[in-house]
Amino acid sequence: MEESLRNSGAYRVFTERDPETGEIIVYGEPRREAPTPEWGVVIGDIVHNLRSALDHMVWALTVANGNAPPAVIPKGKAGKPWRDISFPIYTDPYPTDHGGKLIPWSQSKEPQSLWGIDPSLRADFESLQPFMSRGNPGLIQLGTEDPSYAPLAILHNLWNIDKHRHLHLTVFTVGYKDLFGPPTSPQTPGGVNRLNFAPNPRGSFEGRTEFGRLSWDGGPVPTEVARRLNPSVFFDIAFEDGPPVYGGRVTQTLDGPFYEVQRILQRFEQHLA
Fold first, then answer.
1. CA 125 – CA 271 distance, rounded (Å)
2. pLDDT digits (tens, 9 = 90+) for 8-51
3. Which of 108, 82, 112 is nearest to 96 (CA)?
4. Which of 4, 29, 159, 254 has the least C-beta neighbours within 10 A?
């Protein structure tokens, strides 16, 4: 995504010298509006495909356990067990259905969505639930045990938003990468240890935006250093502020669910033979 934005000319990065301080100011400027509608559709498609892959797996596990699905699933109560088949995702260890009724989850009884799987797999499904967050490496890295930040919880919430509410809204986001651009060694002038860069924390941005300032220890940034500057930043599409991802970058946010779904599919693959 970052490369496609860079190649599309969606933004530019440039520098200007502050005439009063001699500092070099690094600016960025989008050349078009953030692609909110089109990226919302793309994100929804990715999220739906990931969520569907998990549901398809549970269906396949149900069939592999000796349950033959009807050619046509009947309406009403008779077809409900087959329509209920899905991969359960719960942040609450004591989840309830839409009517407030407790959904069972124990070694002796499973959610209705798992009625047809091999009972020996129940513990595996339970261990994957976001509510089993204590000791979760991904959450530890984030400094939280809040199960709503678990990759499966994020996937499920993004899916529900896209399915029932609206397209995911997106904005441009930016962050600092390098001052002299790749590769750094041939382009880096001498004395750069005297060069100080103070980046401005940036989230989403619109219009010409100051990304940071370069100062030189002892005076204005020398012309030779300024001439070699080739600042690079990462540009990405970010979600809107607020739950479930609070303005997170789209690529980073979707990486978590993608690798989690991949891991789960690989984990149960042997039971589908």
1. 13
2. 566 778 889 999 989 999 888 777 665 557 778 888 899 999 99
3. 112
4. 4
Q: Which residue has the tokens 């990226």?
A: 39
Residue 127 exposed, middle or buried by CB count within 10 Å (0-12, 13-18, 19+): exposed
More confident residue, 225 or 110: 225
DSSP letters along 244-262, please? TTTT-BHHHHHHHHHHHHH
User: Measuring CA to CA, which residue among 98, 173, 146 is closest to residue 243?
Assistant: 146
Q: What is the pLDDT of residue 38?
A: 76
Structure tokens at 12: 């530019």
Contact criterion met (CB below 8 Å) for 107 and 101: no
End-to-end Cα distance, the chain = 36
Distance CA 181, CA 167 (A): 35
Q: In the numeric block, which tokens belong to residue 225?
A: 């250093």
Residue for token digits 């356990």? 65
Say if residue 27 is exposed, middle or buried (CB neighbours under 10 Å; 0-12, 13-18, 19+): middle
Residue 86 CA: distances (Å) to CA of 55, 95, 117, 169: 4, 15, 11, 27
Phi-psi region of 242 (alpha: psi -120 to 50; beta: other; left: phi over 0): left
- 245 phi and psi, to 5 degrees? -120, -5
Angle at 245 between CA 84 and CA 153, to 5 degrees: 25
How far is the C-alpha of 163 from the C-alpha of 175, rounded, in Å? 31
User: 266 and 54 in contact (C-beta within 8 Å)?
Assistant: no
